[in-house]
Task: inverse folding
């Protein structure tokens, strides 16, 4: 087992503490010992020196140096005594214990040192306490005793050494004890730490086995039960997540199945026009495999699609186009942009994300439509010829009746006059109804020609002002008759447009005559301006308006507001559909805004520049 951090820290502090104790004890006891020993040596030396001094008075007086020598020699045996020498009152050393000769340092101090203790250091011999005792107060001479200080130092170091050895032993022992004690505490702490690390790595199945009843044991138990709880919660969430994912997958699969089994084709493009998603119907419609389309630009499906997706990405409205499918089939494509609102607030997506295009195979409808148009054309033709002759005959009969019969009748006969008046009224009715049928038939022929694309367009550079004025002129008598104010606002210097003059006049006449038909009082206002590279024309009236629920249908064939079965209709219901065909053939748009009971504004646009690939194709083909 590796050393626990706790133990490491404890060990370091113990060592530090012991070091301080060691040093203090050593310095203190060393210093104490040194002082004691020095004192002891001093008194010892002083005693020796005085005893030599007192006993040697006579000997020195007798100048018996041999005796002095013998005496001082014997003192050398005493522990700590290094040298002894005696000098006379003149300072002459008369005997000494130095071998072989007196060191220079001793000769130097002899004069100066006449009493007390002095520290000297002799080269080659060491440190000494030089203790002087005068003989008969210095009158005869002095005794010098040199106590060896080296011995003091040696003794001191021996004591300090053994002290350190003892302390070290105590230190080792206490270290040993500390190790065991700390270990006993840190072992479970270590285990707990390891356990906590495992929990951090989400290993909730890990176990910790601490049996002790102390705080650590309690902590371990608490942690264990906490881990169990977390584990349970995790498990529960994991299951819930799995369930949610499964449900999501199922929903996705369900949606994908629905999309794939749709009869209509579905294409999703991103904002760069790259195909993201298609369903199997699309593959059939274009005779391409899925992988030949996914990730490719929509232009591989034809330029109509490029225009459709570009238009749809630029607006939030629904954009439609007719397109050619494989095997001589036709489709109608409806495109709608995908906006970011459908995504979470913090989603990366911004603005329009792409476009969803739905394609319906309308080959059959087209066929039926064509048959219908053909049928209508034939029937209209068949009706128009006899109708023309009927009307011609009626006119002729009326003329003859007026010119020939009436002058030869007795107008005083009241009965006859009454009949004549009735006949005249009936002639009027026959003629006006006949005209209505004629215009209906010509409208029907017109719209079926427009719808089948067999109209010949005479394109020329014209100004919108010319068109509006011509239409107004054609209806000026009606305007006068109704007594409605007409207000014309044309932006000056409008660019010219490339269009079929007669057809646009037809549109304007229809819009003006509608405004006249459905307005009793107020005004009619017409304006033309340039907006977004298009000429925008508005026809506003203060008439009856169109109910909201009818606004979407009035551009359909035969749709007229109100119950045409009960009320006598004011027209054929073909004017707006014809106008719509004409405007769209020029690449423009026509729409209406109206408030029921207050009035309506009809708008249409004609693009200035003929763009490639737009509905102008109809005109050019
Ligand atoms: N300016 C208008 N104000 C009110 N209703 C209108 C206006 N223009 C058209 N409508 C409604 O739309 C219908 C269709 O118009 P249109 O196609 O021109 O047919 P028609 O003029 O032959 O009735 C009209 O019958 C009328 O109900
Ligand atoms: Mg009309």
Result:
């Amino acid at each position: 087992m590796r050393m626990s951090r706790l133990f490491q820290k404890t060990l370091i502090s113990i060592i530090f503490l012991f070091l301080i104790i060691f040093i203090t004890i050593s310095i203190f006891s060393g210093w104490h010992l040194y002082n004691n020993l020095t004192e002891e040596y001093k008194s010892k030396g002083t005693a020796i020196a005085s005893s030599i001094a007192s006993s040697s008075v006579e000997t020195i007086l007798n100048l018996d140096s041999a005796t002095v020598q013998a005496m001082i020699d014997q003192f050398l045996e005493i522990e700590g005594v290094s040298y002894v020498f005696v000098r006379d009152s003149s300072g002459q050393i008369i005997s000494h214990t130095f071998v072989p000769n007196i060191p220079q340092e001793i000769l130097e101090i002899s004069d100066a040192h006449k009493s007390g203790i002095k520290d000297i250091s002799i080269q080659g011999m060491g440190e000494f306490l030089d203790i002087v005792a005068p003989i008969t107060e210095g009158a005869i001479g002095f005794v010098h005793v040199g106590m060896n200080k080296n011995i003091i130092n040696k003794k001191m170091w021996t004591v300090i050494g053994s002290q350190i050895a003892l302390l070290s032993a105590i230190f080792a022992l206490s270290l040993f004890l500390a190790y065991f004690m700390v270990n006993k505490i840190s072992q479970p702490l270590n285990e707990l730490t390891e356990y906590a690390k495992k929990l951090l790595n989400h290993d909730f199945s890990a176990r910790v086995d601490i049996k002790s009843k102390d705080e650590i044991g309690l902590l371990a138990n608490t942690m264990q039960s906490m881990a169990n709880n977390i584990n349970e919660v995790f498990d529960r969430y994991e299951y819930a997540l799995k369930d949610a994912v499964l449900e999501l997958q199922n929903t996705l699969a369900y949606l994908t199945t629905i999309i794939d089994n749709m009869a209509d084709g579905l294409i999703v493009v991103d904002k760069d026009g790259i195909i993201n998603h298609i369903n199997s119907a699309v593959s059939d419609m274009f005779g391409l495999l899925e992988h030949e389309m996914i990730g490719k630009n929509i232009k591989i499906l034809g330029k109509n699609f490029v225009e459709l997706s570009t238009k749809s990405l630029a607006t939030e409205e629904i954009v439609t186009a007719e397109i050619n499918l494989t095997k001589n089939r036709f489709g109608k494509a409806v495109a709608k942009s995908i906006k970011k609102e459908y995504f979470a607030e913090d989603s990366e997506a911004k603005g329009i994300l792409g476009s969803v295009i739905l394609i319906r195979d309308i080959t059959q409808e087209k066929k039926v439509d064509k048959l219908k148009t053909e049928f209508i054309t034939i029937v209209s033709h068949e009706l128009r010829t006899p109708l023309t002759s009927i009307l011609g005959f009626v006119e002729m009969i009326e003329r003859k009746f007026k010119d020939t019969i009436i002058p030869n009748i007795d107008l005083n006969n009241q009965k006859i006059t009454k009949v004549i008046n009735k006949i005249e009224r009936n002639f009027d009715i026959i003629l006006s109804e006949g005209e209505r049928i004629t215009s209906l038939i010509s409208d029907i022929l017109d719209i079926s020609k427009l719808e089948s694309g067999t109209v010949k367009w005479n394109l020329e550079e014209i100004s919108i002002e010319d068109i509006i004025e011509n239409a107004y002129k054609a209806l000026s008598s009606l305007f006068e008759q109704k007594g409605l104010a007409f207000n014309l606002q044309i932006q000056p210097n409008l660019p010219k447009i490339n269009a079929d003059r007669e057809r646009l006049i037809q549109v304007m006449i229809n819009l003006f005559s509608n405004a006249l038909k459905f307005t009793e009082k107020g005004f009619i206002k017409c304006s033309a301006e340039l907006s977004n590279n298009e000429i925008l024309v508005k026809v506003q009236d203060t008439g009856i308006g169109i109910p909201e629920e009818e606004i979407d249908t009035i551009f359909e064939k035969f749709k007229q507001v109100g119950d045409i079965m009960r009320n006598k209709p004011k027209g054929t219901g073909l004017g707006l559909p014809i106008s719509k065909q004409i405007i769209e053939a020029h690449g423009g748009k026509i729409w209406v805004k109206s408030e029921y009971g207050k009035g309506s504004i009809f708008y249409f646009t004609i693009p200035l520049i003929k763009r490639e690939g737009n509905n102008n194709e109809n005109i050019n083909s």
User: Anything to note?
Assistant: DSSP finds 15 helices and 17 strands in the chain.
